[in-house]
Each structure stands twice: as C-alpha cells, then as structure tokens.
Amino acid sequence: MANLGVEHWVRIKNERIILDGEVIFSSEVDIARFLKASFKFLNIKYPKFHKMDRLSKLGFIASEIVLKNNNIDEETALVFSNNSSSLDSDQNYQESVKDFPSPSLFVYTLPNIVLGEISIRHQLKSENVFFIEDEFNANLLIDYSKQLIESKKANKVLCAWLNLHNDEYDVFLWLSSESHKKEASEEQIRKIYDADYD
Amino acid sequence: MSRSVAVTGMGIFSAIGKDLEENHSSLIHGKHGLSTPEILETTHQKLPIGEIKATNIDLAKNLNLDESHAFTRAALLGTIALKEAVKNAKIKDFTNIGFVNGTSVGGMDMTERFYREYENDATNRRFIQAQHPGFTTEQIASYFGINNYVTTISTACSSAANAIMMGARLIKSGRLDRVIVGGTDCLSRFTLNGFNSLMIYSEDFPKPFDAERKGLNLGEAAAYLVLESAELAENKEVLGYVSGYGNANDAFHQTASSENGEGAYLAMQKALKTARFNPHQIDYINAHGTATQNNDLSESRALIRTFKEMPALSSTKSFTGHTLAAAGGIEAVFSLLAIKHQQIYPNLNFNSVINETKLEPVTELKSAKIDHVLSNSFGFGGNCTSLIFSKNG
Amino acid sequence: MPIMTDLHTELKASIIEQLNLEDMEVSDIENDEPLFGDGLGLDSIDALELIVLLEKDYGIKLTDPKKGREIFESINKMADFIEANRTK
Fold it and tell me: Where are the alpha helices (DSSP H) in chain B?
C-alpha cells in the first residue's frame, strides 16, 4: 500500500488561518468580513470569488493557500467531506423561494460545487468526491486518497474537512502525496485537526 | 489488486415501477412514468414530474414502520429498493457489509414541510435532523443493521454513480468483500423551483437528444446494487460485473457543461482504460441525456470524440425523469437489465437529430448482443462519471 | 445617445447588488458597455438572475432565456426594454 505524506496543511477556524502550524492571518470579525479580509490577504484578482457561496469561499481560500507555492499537478484529486453539506446556502435559497427562487443561490445548494470552483480556478480535470460524515473522519479521507494513488488515478490528493454551520466554520485542508520517507498516519492527521493553536 | 467486482443483487423503485419486474416491464412496453404532481404539494401543477404514486404513509406501511418513525421520503424509497437488492443477492447477514449511499436532496422534503411548525409544535421535530443528508443514509443502514462501513456521497447527479465506483474500488483493492452501493433522492419543491429558476425545466415530456428538446423533468427514485468479490459470488447468480469506472471534472462552470464535453470525455476515457477496453467493445450507451439544450449537445460531442463508430445509444430519463443523485443507480440497474435480457431500451419522445452532432438514439425496443454497457452520469460542479458494466468478469 | 435617466442608475445599482459585483460602483458602468463577455464579464447564471430582477422589480416575465441575451446587451438596451414593457 502507498505511504502518504502531508506536503502542506491549512486550518481555518476561530477567525484564524494557520498554515503548517503557524498563524498566517487573523481577524476577529464576523464570518462575512473574515472571508472578505482573508481574500484580500491572498492578494489575487479573481472577481468570481465574490459570487461564490460561503462554503465555496472557505474552500477556495484554503486551497489557494496550500496550492500557492506548489506547482499544480493536473492530476491532483480532490477528496472533501463535511457534516453540514450545503446547509448554509440551502437556507438562503429556501428564503428566496417564498418570493422569487434565485438561480444564483440555487446553484450553490450542493456541497460539491466548491470542488468545481477549485477545479475551474486551477484547471484541474482530475477525480473528485464529496463525503457527508457525522464528524471529521481522517481514516476515510486517507484511505480513499491511498486508493486513488495506488490505482494511479492521481499523483497528489487535496483532502479536506470543510464545514460551515450557523456561521461557524471549521476547515482543515491538506495536500498529500506519496512519500517513501515520512508517512502521515491517521493519528497524526487527527492530531493536527484537534490541536488548539493558541 | 485486480479482483473482479460481481453484481449479485439489485433493487429499484422509480416512477415506472416498485421493483425490478415492474421497471423492466415498463421499459419494454415503452411506458413512461411522467405525470403532473399528485403527491408533491406544489404550485407548479402543470409541470410533468416522474413521481412515485405512493404517499409516505403508504411507504411506511409497506415497511411496517411504526407511526413515530423519522424516515424521510428518500429513506423510505431507499429502504424498499435496498430490501429488494439484498433479497435478490440472498444476503441475510449484514455484519461485514459496507454501504455507500448517494443522495443530494436528502431530507429536504421534510424540512420544507415542517420547518415552520418546528418552533411551536413538537410533533414533527424528529425530522429536524432530516435536513442532514447523512441522516437518510443512517436510517436506511439502521433498518438493516448495517454498521461496518457506512458513508454518504453528495456530488449532485453523479452521486450514485460515484458510490458504485467507490464500492467497486473497495472490493477490487481487497478492503471489503461485499458492499451495497447506489442512491436515493425524492422530489421536493426545493429542487423543482430551483431547476425551474435555471430555466431548464421542460413543461412537456423530456426529449433527450432531440433538436427540439426543451429541458429536463425531475423524478424520484432509489436503486442499489450488491457488489461482491468474485470468491463470495462463486456459487451465486451473477447479474454482471463492474468492469470500468472513471471520474473527471469538467473545470468549466458551476452548472453548465463545457462546449466540447471535456469532463465527460475524460470520464469515458478513464472508464475504458480501467476496463482495458477499446471503444468499439461497448455495445450500448445509457447516456446521461437530461434533455437540456446544454447537456445533450455537450454529451453528444464527448461521445463523438470517444467513439469512432457510435454504439446503440439511449437516455432512459425519458421514462423516469431526472432522478438526481439516484440517476446513476437506476441507470446502472437498467444497464444490467440490458445485459440480462440482451435488449436495448428506447429513448422516448425523439423526433429529429441535433443539427450539430446528428446522433440518433434507439427509439424502439431492440434485441441485441450486449456484453458491455457504458453508463454516464454528470453532476453540477463539473463532476462527470462513467461506469462500464459487463456480462462476464 | 439616450440620456441618463434614474432608471439607468437604478439598474446599475441593482445589478451591482444582485450580482455581487464587488468593488464596483454605479459610475464604473457605462450605459453602452457590454454587460456580458468582455464587458462586466457576467455569465449565464447572472443572466438568469437578471431575468428574476426584471420580474421582481418591473413585473416583466421572460420565458425564453435566449431573449435575455439581447435585452441584457447593455444598460441602455435594458432600460429601453423595461420602459416599453414594465407593468410596475
């Protein structure tokens, strides 16, 4: 079986962005302003960002940070998961149905639209999947990634737990690739997710 | 690494039938399941939908659930379809079995029915968690006592197809020996209004691959396959094998498919590659064929790029409507029925070819030698999946 | 050249708001500038959202999305169409 190592990881939670263990951005404001400020921090021009729903914005920011200093490999697969699916957008769209159903809100009522957004941004035509799980399930993401790499469907995998519910966001995204030296175990991945970073 | 993946059971519940036999009978008699809404409460009284004419109360009775049950409609349909699949595969012991379920609507129907009551009335509060798509999967799993390996895939209209692909991999790589895969989705005002707002909802019956196609019609359904390793399947009747699968992102637009169908093309290439097939070995294509202007043109272009000589082609969504996350599941069942009965099911309501691509689908039931079927399922978010089912492993 | 009316300004403001055109102001949109393609870079979903806007704010119901493309060519075209067809 393939040994998977972690190239880089990013954590977005409690008004902070942490890259490989270091706080690279923080702004103690509500989610709307936090997303806007984080995007500014990326220092890129991408007008489409402002049209995305909040789940996609979170996924977009996290993936930008991790992929920024990497040469993007076209065969990078996306394996994402969360608990709340696209609930945040579902509710916004549901509100609009009473009056005039909004097409631009409706298109974001699926959790995997963020995978499309990231794929469009980086022109990734690779394999992608979105799991709904009760809680962060490191084993599922690692095991699925291993299968993809073992069967040569991908060279690298961008794994993520990307959850947004009641304005609370919990993002953990990492880039894994085959590593002969250092395997990142389920326990290690779990530890990164659980840490407080105070 | 390379174990073959046998299909030893399947079950289906759709607008054209409550089980395999009814679905097959509708397919061979050209009897579609589209009608105006009777069960779904909506102001869109004239929009044709592929509705299953059974209330949730009827469905719960069928399963002997007591009145306090919290099954969503998708869970009710799913449980009935799964029951048929495991009966078919003669499975009684659920201890070492996996379950990968595709759903995208989940329990949205319950939320829209009870949302306003929740605050003041406790009667239906048990449905609050129903909004979570994982809840529908858990209900189905708990009915059978499946708890070994359970997960939900939500990638829009390719969800069930991706569940089948994942199940095949789990078996191929030796991680599991037996897994139930497929999907379920029910009709809801949420999706009906949504597709209508995208102006791709047809006011008439769907006309896949027709020049005059006016859009899709939603449907509801559930379908599951029981996949087993060749060793476990040895003394069983095998309905077919999952021989190829591929997934790719179109990387073009949130909802629209690219002009030349790049994602679809790549998914088919990958599926052919995993199966180690040449395109000419495919005898029948069960297309995604939603009957929207955009999908059918884009898919046609991807098909032309893949196949020098076009195999027999049809979209059975003309029978069932587009059943979203369940589509890949019911179309897998139709593909396996095509193999079992050596016949090709028609593409209904077709009159004239699309000018740019000129693909002509099969319009009447046809007997044919069928060894390999390719089934396409493409979802919003650019998620494109192709599966190949084969007669022999 | 049609003169700038309140309707033109109103339209620009609602387009910026409805379509989340971040960091854009009314004065940034020219009356004859193309809204789609190279102009403001709007896409097919934006066009659908503009169809909703026509119905919501001006009581005009479009059934053919293709027709939207002509109407939404520029602010001028949109304003002319609304003036001729509005029911509210």
Answer: 20-29, 56-62, 73-88, 108-114, 133-144, 159-172, 189-197, 262-275, 293-306, 317-320, 327-341
